[in-house]
Amino acid sequence: MASLLVAICFISFMLVKNSPIDPIQAYIGADMLKVGPEQRAKIAEYWGVDQPVMVQFLNWGSAVLNGDLGTSMIYRRPVIDVIRERFLNSLVLMVSAWLLSGVIGFVMGVVAAMKKGAWIDRIIKWYCFTLASVPTFWMGLLILIVFAVWLRWFPVGMGVPAGVLAKDVTLLDRIQHIILPTLTLSIVALPMWLSIHVRR
């Protein structure tokens, strides 16, 4: 098992290493003409990309095992800190969607079982099988277009309002931004399977 994990890590590392994108050039960006060969060499030395491949892999692996995922070029902060801050938002979304979808799916399954063969049972089964055959990403985009773009009931994206400092974000802002993703995940994902199993 450990050897398989190491092999997967090495293959992933080599795929990134052999990418046609030059990391130094991508880092420099529009200032490429202003950076001379000596500066590029210093950047390569600082990042360690001028070392042999196996040395780079071992350095990367040891850093990952020690919890060092590198530094974000966008936020100029350790990647682990950026992930830690945003993990809470993902956790809240996951838990809220899981709870809501469980309630929706259970209620639909109970209603379908109590009214087996009736029109409401057929509607619930049609809903479940239709969503099962529709790509999830397409349904998510459709819900986003209808409720966020056309009706403008909810924000289009992000977890907080754009351009607002973290200290100025209110609980109401966070709730408003999480409603549509929660409803989308709850409606599209779990209820159809839970409803079918509860009905049986």
TrEMBL record:
<keyword id="KW-0472">Membrane</keyword>
<keyword id="KW-1003">Cell membrane</keyword>
<keyword id="KW-0812">Transmembrane</keyword>
<dbReference type="InterPro" id="IPR000515">
    <property type="entry name" value="MetI-like"/>
</dbReference>
<dbReference type="InterPro" id="IPR045621">
    <property type="entry name" value="BPD_transp_1_N"/>
</dbReference>
<feature type="domain" description="ABC transmembrane type-1">
    <location>
        <begin position="87"/>
        <end position="200"/>
    </location>
</feature>
<dbReference type="GO" id="GO:0055085">
    <property type="term" value="P:transmembrane transport"/>
</dbReference>
<dbReference type="InterPro" id="IPR035906">
    <property type="entry name" value="MetI-like_sf"/>
</dbReference>
<protein>
    <submittedName>
        <fullName>Dipeptide transport system permease protein DppB</fullName>
    </submittedName>
</protein>
<keyword id="KW-0813">Transport</keyword>
<dbReference type="GO" id="GO:0005886">
    <property type="term" value="C:plasma membrane"/>
</dbReference>
<feature type="transmembrane region" description="Helical">
    <location>
        <begin position="174"/>
        <end position="194"/>
    </location>
</feature>
<feature type="transmembrane region" description="Helical">
    <location>
        <begin position="126"/>
        <end position="154"/>
    </location>
</feature>
<dbReference type="Pfam" id="PF00528">
    <property type="entry name" value="BPD_transp_1"/>
</dbReference>
<comment type="similarity">
    <text>Belongs to the binding-protein-dependent transport system permease family.</text>
</comment>
<feature type="transmembrane region" description="Helical">
    <location>
        <begin position="91"/>
        <end position="114"/>
    </location>
</feature>
<dbReference type="Pfam" id="PF19300">
    <property type="entry name" value="BPD_transp_1_N"/>
</dbReference>
<keyword id="KW-1133">Transmembrane helix</keyword>
